[in-house]
Amino acid sequence: GLPAEVRIHEVGARDGLQNEKTVVPTSVKAEFVHRLAGAGLRTIEATSFVHPKWVPQLADAAELVPQLADLLADPALRLPVLVPNQRGLERALELGVREIAVFGSATESFARANLNRTVDESLAMFEPVVARARAEGLRVRGYLSMCFGDPWEGPVPIGQVAGVARRLHAMGCTELSLGDTIGVATPGHVTALLAELTGGGVPVEQLAVHFHDTYGQALANTLAALQQGVTVVDASAGGLGGCPFAKSATGNLATEDLVWMLHGLGIRTGVDLVRLSATSVWMAEQLGRPSPSRTVRALTHQ
Ligand code: HMG
Ligand code: MG
Predict the structure, then answer these.
(1) What residues line ligand 1, using a CB cutoff of 6 Å?
(2) What per-residue confidence (pLDDT) applies to 243?
(3) Over pLDDT 90: what percentage of the chain?
(4) Nearest atom in ligand 1 to 101's CA
(5) Distance in angstroms (rounded) separating the CA atoms of residues 238 and 254
């Protein structure tokens, strides 16, 4: 059966904005995150503490986080940030961040393109980060990219994905987010990967799904994951997003499209769809182009 409730992990301010050509002013990002919280989202990924030359769009992370102090102080809200290494963790901890995400790859090509490391080297880089963060009482999400297909390597074998997933889980990640970075997954593939992981000792309560909507499959893939017991779904407001280090990665599943489906199924999310769509229209104005979300367009006559 389907779950009664889904926790949406909102990635628009991070995965969305990291891929925009326009560098959005810090004050606009802060307003975006506040509006997302106002629309009822409870897990809002805020930014990344990565090398500023690698992701100039998020180079203002240390300026943004203090502007979110009221949200950080709210125990009902979770504001994770991406952290690749000990330097990133130091920067985040200094600012009072309470939740981080490391981000690994199932393939060597993307580990190189995204982290300048092999898969083994990147896991070795994460290990002390996860250990220190857990010791500080932080939640630690482990992203795993290229779980279905890779732009350089093609389809990615399920066993290869499961192997890296189990290593991230064993390292102490409290949640694993399975990334379809370039949006090539289809529902049967999602079901097969989830069965392999849950059968191999990763509890379904610790799994999340992260679909990009390149081929229009993200909602179908999400439904397949819900049927397998997943209750945490990543999405980005208005469908912002992509990944600058993977060609053919377009936007994430739009949060509004996800909420429309979930509410139609009677699944609670806590999200106010009207307020969220208004936020995405406002953000689209800041970026100077319309939202790609079908639901946003339908609800706001864009
Ligand atoms: P590197 O060049 O190998 O770094 O990059 P390094 O460790 O050799 O250090 C070089 C310099 O960078 C040093 O400075 C460090 O201090 C500095 P120098 O001594 O030369 O002056 N440095 C930093 N500065 C600030 N913050 C830091 C930091 N780390 C090092 N954290 C590195 C390695 C991992 C840093 C780099 O590759 C990087 O920043 N990569 C980030 C890429 C990224 O953010 N990608 C997007 C997120 S992943 C994604 O979108 C996929 C996802 O959505 C899921 C999906 O869709 O599949 C999550
Ligand atoms: Mg992504």
Answers:
(1) 15, 18, 48-51, 54-55, 82, 84-85, 87-88, 91, 103, 114-116, 143, 145, 179, 181, 210, 243, 245
(2) 61
(3) 92
(4) 58
(5) 5
Which two structure tokens, joined as six digits, stand for 267? 């699944």
**Radius of gyration of the chain from its Cα atoms, rounded to whole angstroms:** 17
Summarised one tens digit per residue, pLDDT across range 91-121 is: 999 999 999 999 999 999 999 999 999 999 9
Query: Is 142 within 8 Å of 102 (Cβ atoms)?
Result: yes
Protein residue with least CA distance to atom 20, ligand 1: 51
As given in the structure block, the two tokens for residue 122 are 């990147």
pLDDT tens digit sequence for 161-197: 999 999 999 999 999 999 999 999 999 999 999 999 9
Structural contact between residues 200 and 170, judged by C-beta atoms closer than 8 angstroms: no
CA-proximal residue: ligand 1, atom 24 (nearest): 51
204 residue type, one letter: V
Tell me the pLDDT tens digit for each residue of 231-252.
Answer: 999 999 999 986 667 666 678 9
Query: How many angstroms does the Cα of residue 265 sit away from the middle of ligand 1?
Result: 40
Distance from Cα 242 to the centre of ligand 2, integer Å: 6
Total residue count of the chain as it appears in this document: 302
pLDDT recorded at residue 250 = 78
Integer CA distances (angstroms), 295 to 109, 167, 277, 299, 302, in order = 35, 38, 8, 6, 10
What φ, ψ does residue 207 adopt, rounded to 5°? -105, 140
Model confidence at 294: pLDDT above 80? yes
> How far apart (Å, rounded) are the C-alpha atoms in residues 89 and 53?
17
Place of tokens 């367009």: 297
pLDDT of residue 238: 96
Q: Which of 101, 40, 24, 27 is nearest to 68 (CA)?
A: 27
DSSP 54: T
Predicted interface score ipTM higher than 0.95: yes
**Residues within 5 Å of ion ligand 2 by Cβ?**
15
**Nearest-atom index, ligand 1, CA of 91:** 26
